[in-house]
Each structure stands twice: as C-alpha cells, then as structure tokens.
Amino acid sequence: MVRIGALVSGRGSNLQAIVDAGARRELNAQVVVVISNVADAYALERARAHRIDALFVNHRDFPDRAAFEARLIGELDAHEVGLVCLAGFMRILSPVFVRHYPLRIMNIHPALLPAFAGFYGHHVHEAVLKSGARFSGCTVHFVTEEVDGGPIVVQRVVPVLGCDTPDELAARVLVEEHKAYVEAIRLFAAGALDVDGKRVKVRE
Ligand code: GRF
C-alpha cells in the first residue's frame, strides 16, 4: 500500500477524487496526510471528514523557503509517505525538496504539457483560449527541478469550444483531471511506471 501525502492550497477536488478512489479500493494507495499552506483551504475540511491527518503549515511563519520545506519534509516523512501528490498546491518547490523524493512527487497541470507550462489557475485556460487551440486537457507528471517539465504520466484531452469562457473550459478539464490523477496513482502504486529521461513507459 503506497502512503500518499497531499499538498494543497484550495478547493481539493482532486484530493477528493483520490480519496474516493482509495475508498472504492481502486488504488493500492491511501492518502495518510494532507498539508495546506492556506488555513481555510476546503481541502483540509475534506481530509478531516475522512479522518485523514490534516495540517496547516503557513509558509509565512518561516524565514525562508528552505525552512518551510524542511517542515513539510518532516511531516511527510513522519507519515512515511511514499508518494507526494501536489493537488492545487500554489507554492513552487525547491530542488532540495524535489531531490528528497526523486520520482516520488506528482503534480496535475490543467493543460496539455509541454504547451502552456508555467501558467497556473485560470491563467492557463485564458492562455489556451487566446491561443486558438482546439484541444486542451490535463497532465499528470512527475515533479522535477524543471517547473512543469517532469516526465508525463497521464494526459486526458478535451475539446475547446468556440464559445468557451475560461470557467467553462476549466470545468470541462477538471472532470478529466479527477480521472487522470487517479489513473496516474493507480499505475504508480501498481509499480507499472518506468521512467527513461522525460519518457514514461507504462508496463502492462
Ligand atoms: C486544478 O485545476 C489543478 O490542475 C491545478 O489546481 C487546481 C486544483 O483544483 N493544479 P482542486 O483544488 O483539486 O479542486
């Protein structure tokens, strides 16, 4: 059983999808701790409702990023986490943190990487609409030192409609995010992922 630590900053709908899939026994994995850098993140309430350890760690309480991350690492390691899932976590993680969990951190990005890397939140969907792209989607990738540049595990595609607003596109992508994250974790927990540079081979 892979023990998951989730880092969150907001709503937590991806966290919810992962927890629900675990409860349905679709995953050989379980969320054991949820850490938020935002006190009133709804994700923390979701965790508490499922009796999952839910911690608020305020990055502003630390002198620098290294000290904040040392605290995160302390909590994650105390929970013997084997996979860190970033699920709407709005802080960039330093190389020190990333190297502590090599190919053990996943993130979800609400676009088809490597296009639209570096954008976050509604800015991603605005950029997609502005670009005129006919398709968007989501990407679950391993986190490396290159922001939004790690090996891609799962992508799911949605159409972009001519009349879409950023919110409408975001909602269509979000439905696929929930499926993509669960699938990526399922593959990871099954030991089915081989990483070769930027490429991920899925063993059947
Ligand atoms: C998602 O759109 C995800 O792609 C992005 O942040 C959002 C988090 O949503 N990284 P939620 O908190 O999981 O509902």
List keywords for this structure.
binds 5-O-phosphono-beta-D-ribofuranosylamine, 9 strands, 204 residues, globular, 7-stranded mixed beta sheet, alpha/beta, 6 helices, 25% strand
Query: What small-molecule ligands were found?
Result: 5-O-phosphono-beta-D-ribofuranosylamine
Structural class: alpha/beta
- What share of the residues does DSSP label as strand, in percent? 25-35%
What oligomeric assembly is this protein in? single chain
Question: Can you summarize the main beta sheet?
Answer: 7 strands, mixed
Cα(first) to Cα(last) distance is 19 Å
Helix content: 25-40%
Helices, by number, come to 6
Q: Based on Cα principal axes, name the global outline.
A: globular
Strand order of the largest sheet: 3-2-1-4-5-6-7
Low-pLDDT windows of residues: none
Task: Tell me how many strands there are.
Answer: 9
Mean pLDDT over the full residue set: 98
| Radius of gyration computed on alpha carbons | 16 Å
Q: H/E element string?
A: EHEHEHEHEHEEHEE
